[in-house]
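anyone seen this seq b4? input:
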Amino acid sequence: MDINLGDIREDAMYRINQSIFSIAPNADFTDFESQTKVLCNEFLILAAASLLADMKPSMFFLNLCRCAENWRRFSNLSQTCFHRLPTLLYNTPYYAAVIANDKQLIQKLINTMPEEWSKGEEYEAQFHETCLIMLLSANNVKQDKNVIKHLSLLEACEADSAQTILTKALLGLDELTADDFWAQFEISLYEHVEEIEERAQMASTSITNFAAYRFIWFKGLAWLRLAKIRGFEFPSSGYIYCPEEALLPMSEAYKGDWIIMPDMKL
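predicted toks r here
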């Protein structure tokens, strides 16, 4: 699949301008969720193009924050207008906030996240992994009661999973070290590359939904951001789908622009 980031970025900008101010919780929940997810994916396209086509890390981070903030507003409005807790099945906006390392936005997202996974609607291991990444980002990769809670629950459903090993290595548990983190990260990256290449060859793959993921591994970058916070020394070779520029400090604070409806009190 041949994707031109410059061309698809222009299409994404057009679609954002056409839709962002009309997205509101006045239809059914499924429509509201679908429309917001599409919008978030458009911002991911802008983020990828900002970094890889324009070589502007500052715009990369701002577009990640726009993705994350719009999903946070969806989560808030889901609870106030539909009395529903969204699942963490679509979790890239959470990774986006972690990559940008916007602590205020990360904490706001945590405040709207569900406390328990929804059986039959999402994967338990994915739920706990997302929670762990968010919590570790918020507390600068330290153990606390919530981290231990989700790590224990993650181990209960997938004892030797990549997520468990990465988390324990970051925290120095079970004698795991930075070397163990990098070894597991490389295994996970290899599996991710295989999955992405397979999706790229499928005729049914939506270019709009897939475009940003074709170039950037958002979950991988979230783990790398945590490793950077932890002070791990990075291998000199770098990693495919994880541009080094994506881990620079965010130079310009996100001010809450390009958003759907204002928040409503819970």
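The chain has a mean pLDDT of 93. Residues 5-241 form one domain. kinda curious what u guys think
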